[in-house]
Amino acid sequence: MGKSKIPSNKQINGTFGALWLDGEKLADVDSFESKININYEDVNMAEDLATHKKMTGWAGEGTLALKKVYSTGASLIGQKLKEGIMPVFTMVSKLQDPDAYGAERVSMEEVTFNEFTLAKFAQKELQTEELPFAFADFELIDLIGRR
Fold it and tell me: Distance between CA 108 and CA 110 in Å, rounded?
């Protein structure tokens, strides 16, 4: 029995990624990553030398990097933070390459940004803005399945 091969053109290309923040599509996205960190506690069982794991929860986090076209971080968070208000957002990411097997769409809920840069620049360098964030819920809207 031979191995099945995946055609190389089916690997998805990140160039086709898109992101919506509270329903508004962001045209200046440079890169995006969201992930789940699973929290475990060690469980030791009688007469067993192995350390087992018990899931105790999870935490969502990620980073949104933008081409520095607008003052996005300051606009979203700055003034509200000074007023003692932390805004909460919804993000939807989509990755769909026309040459791949399908699309991947994920919604992240209760998104809070952890920090934003007030000012930063370097000579002869295109600027980006990184916005690390956390989220408390997610929905797997579309997944790319095996064919």
Answer: 7
